[in-house]
């Protein structure tokens, strides 16, 4: 009786209008899924499938076993589904004698058939533990299982781990977020149907399955609601409004089922008996009489089969287009690999042909003769020209040779070049020292330019014969090594030549160059640029000009200053009027000396008395008179670092401006030479030298 009921609920393929199409299309989609599963993440084509989502212990596994009609999934009170299980149900025909053959196959065990469904359960558990461990760990790596049976309809389902709240065992603390992310990776694609499983004894508004399905399918166009455990609802309640979609509407509707209880499983109650009991339950509840097509596992199987077939029909045109495009692309790539050559002579000829094509392609890209010329960006030789003119030349033109030279630096260089003498004319030595320093600054950008060209040549090398060399990865790697060595061999003489160019410019400063401004002209321009500045005047006293002050008075003031600097105490009468000073001098006072003529050409007595006074006086003894102060002169020790005085004369200002003009004039001459010779050296030693070589 049970067999007849199941046979009636699962009709053969020929008895359904959608079955012929489903029986032919769904297996093809399953084969594509197996192929893409082996490709892994390389596949970008999304195939139609049905994902089963729900919270832990919501009855997902019981629904899947009811659809198959066999016990084959792991059971337990904790989390059971710890890896995504892709379940492909394939309907087969009965044998002529009426017997049935049911078996399963795993993709990771090709060719091995499992006729005992308890062995399938053990293999699922073993494969899960191999990947996720034995202590409740979770993995996103799929397990793919095919079930062949005449009692199933062609359906492909993905059983995903149940949503859990609290981590157990080896599960990480964010297990809920990880499982939700895993589920979303399946159901967010438009080609995936969502089977949201919710137990009837929980609030539908708080359903985790419907909540996550609503995030991926806000309009409810791809979601099918499954209400499980209808037989354990509270007395006086039913799922009538839930199945009609009055609580949370779904376009594809709801289906109510009754799961086997844990007691049924422990008593080994078969799924066929459970389906018979389920049918009796719905018949005995008048509230479900008008919902016959929405109640029971057989109705769920039919609904899933029909919806999946319709879904495949909807996505089939786009799927065919994507597969065709991918096929054309792969065919072109396959054709670019050429024919397989077995003989040594043929392999040698093929290798020589590839190297010749590579050399031609490299030269054409550098010279701008490439057939596949880009119209969106500069490439090849155009980039090299851009580096020379828009980066190297422009950067040198923006440099000011005097930007890091201050007036004090130039004054210091000029004074150092004169030695112990004062400069009568602007010396040449500081100009040459300063201009060599500026020429040396051109070395680094010149070497950097050579490095830029080296990098561009490497990029050009990588773009040559990409398709032809894809079939020979070892040859591609070896060619990259050889080409890198060739380019480095060309870079070394380029950098050496650039260094020689800079050294030549530094070794000989050609001040006779026709474009050089010259010394006399620079001084003339400097005088024109500087404003007329009068010399600063000293303070005048009583309206008398400093030059007209009597010599004796200026001498006394000088002596007064020296007296203040002497070691000792100077009395208030340290500065005396001129007449008083002269009187002291004429009276032959031997207690001091004066700076007048008499002190240089005076008698012996005065000099002797002064000498004796200095000899007899201690240096630490305070000075009590002006005459004694005149005999002691203290000098300051020079500082460890000397800089020019802050006061700058007009002559120095003219020399500084003239020096800057000379520096700029000669730097422009050298800069133009460098802008011309450095690209030539790079092209000669690096670019053309490499292009003319033969890779053998």
From TrEMBL:
One of its GO terms (biological process) is peroxisome fission. It holds the Pfam family GED. Gene3D superfamilies: Dynamin, middle domain (1.20.120.1240), P-loop containing nucleotide triphosphate hydrolases (3.40.50.300). InterPro entries: Dynamin, Dynamin_GTPase, Dynamin_GTPase_CS, Dynamin_N, Dynamin_stalk, G_DYNAMIN_dom, GED, GED_dom. The keyword Nucleotide-binding applies. Keywords: GTP-binding, Motor protein, Nucleotide-binding. It comes from the Eukaryota. SMART domains: DYNc. One of its GO terms (cellular component) is membrane. Residues 44-317 form the Dynamin-type G domain. PANTHER family: DYNAMIN, DYNAMIN RELATED PROTEIN 1, ISOFORM A. This is Dynamin-related protein 3A. It comes from Carya illinoinensis (Pecan). The lineage of its organism: Eukaryota, Viridiplantae, Streptophyta, Embryophyta, Tracheophyta.
């Amino acid at each position: 009786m049970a067999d007849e009921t199941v046979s009636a609920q699962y009709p053969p393929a020929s008895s359904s209008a959608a079955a012929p199409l489903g029986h032919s299309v769904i297996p093809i989609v399953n084969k594509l899924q197996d192929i893409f599963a082996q490709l892994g993440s390389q596949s970008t084509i999304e195939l139609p499938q049905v994902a089963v989502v729900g919270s832990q212990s919501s009855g997902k596994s019981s629904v899947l076993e009811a659809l198959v009609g066999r016990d084959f999934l792991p059971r337990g009170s904790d989390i059971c589904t710890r890896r995504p299980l892709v379940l492909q149900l394939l309907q087969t025909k009965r044998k002529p004698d009426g017997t049935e053959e049911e078996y399963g196959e795993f993709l990771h065990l090709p060719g091995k058939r499992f006729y005992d469904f308890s062995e399938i359960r053990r293999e699922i558990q073993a494969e899960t533990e191999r990947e996720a461990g034995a202590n409740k760990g979770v993995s996103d790596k799929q397990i793919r299982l095919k079930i062949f049976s005449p009692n199933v309809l062609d359906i492909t389902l993905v059983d995903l781990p149940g949503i859990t709240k609290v981590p157990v065992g080896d599960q990480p603390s964010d297990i809920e977020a990880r499982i939700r992310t895993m589920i979303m990776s399946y159901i967010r694609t438009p080609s995936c149907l969502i089977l949201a499983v919710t137990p009837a004894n929980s609030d539908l508004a708080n359903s985790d399955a419907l909540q996550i399905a609503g995030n991926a399918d806000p309009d409810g166009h791809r979601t099918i609601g499954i209400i499980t455990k209808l037989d354990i609802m509270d007395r006086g309640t039913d799922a009538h409004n839930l199945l009609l979609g009055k609580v949370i509407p779904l376009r594809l509707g709801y289906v109510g089922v009754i799961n086997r209880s844990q007691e049924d499983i422990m008593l080994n109650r078969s799924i066929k008996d459970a389906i018979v009991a389920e049918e009796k339950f719905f018949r005995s509840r008048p509230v479900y009489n008008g919902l016959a097509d929405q109640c029971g596992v057989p109705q769920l199987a039919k609904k899933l089969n029909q919806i999946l077939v319709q879904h495949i029909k909807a996505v089939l045109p786009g799927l065919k287009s994507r597969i065709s495009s991918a096929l054309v692309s792969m065919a072109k790539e396959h054709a670019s690999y050429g024919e397989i050559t077995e003989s040594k002579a043929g392999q040698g000829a093929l290798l020589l042909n590839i190297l010749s094509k590579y050399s031609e392609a490299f030269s054409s890209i550098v010279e701008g003769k490439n057939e596949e010329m880009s119209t969106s960006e500069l490439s090849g030789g155009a980039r090299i020209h851009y580096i020379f003119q828009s980066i190297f030349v422009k950067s040198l033109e923006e440099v000011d040779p005097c930007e890091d030279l201050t007036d004090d630096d130039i004054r210091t260089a000029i004074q150092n070049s004169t030695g112990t003498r004062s400069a009568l004319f602007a010396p040449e030595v500081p100009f040459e020292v300063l201009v060599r320093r500026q020429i040396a600054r051109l070395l680094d950008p010149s070497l950097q330019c050579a490095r830029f060209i080296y990098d561009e040549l490497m990029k050009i090398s990588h773009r040559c014969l990409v398709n032809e060399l894809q079939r020979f990865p070892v040859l591609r790697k070896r060619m990259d090594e050889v080409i890198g060595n060739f380019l480095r061999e060309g870079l070394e003489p380029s950098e050496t030549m650039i260094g020689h160019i800079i050294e030549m410019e530094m070794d000989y400063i050609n001040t006779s160059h026709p474009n050089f401004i010259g010394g006399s002209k620079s001084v003339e321009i400097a005088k024109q640029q500087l404003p007329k500045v009068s010399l600063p005047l000293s303070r005048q006293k009583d309206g008398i000009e400093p030059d007209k002050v009597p010599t004796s008075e200026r001498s006394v003031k000088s002596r007064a200053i020296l007296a203040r600097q002497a070691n000792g105490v100077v009395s208030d009468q340290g500065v005396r009027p001129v007449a008083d000073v002269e009187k002291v001098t004429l009276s032959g006072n031997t207690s001091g000396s004066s700076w007048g003529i008499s002190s240089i050409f005076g008698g012996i007595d005065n000099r002797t008395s002064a000498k004796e006074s200095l000899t007899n006086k201690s240096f630490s003894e305070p000075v009590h008179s002006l005459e004694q102060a005149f005999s002691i002169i203290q000098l300051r020790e020079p500082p460890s670092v000397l800089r020019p005085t802050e006061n700058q004369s007009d002559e120095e200002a003219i020399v500084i401006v003239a020096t800057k003009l000379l520096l700029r004039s000669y730097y422009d001459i050298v800069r133009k030479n460098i802008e011309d010779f450095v690209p030539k050296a790079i092209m000669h030693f690096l670019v053309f030298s490499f292009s003319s070589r033969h890779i053998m």
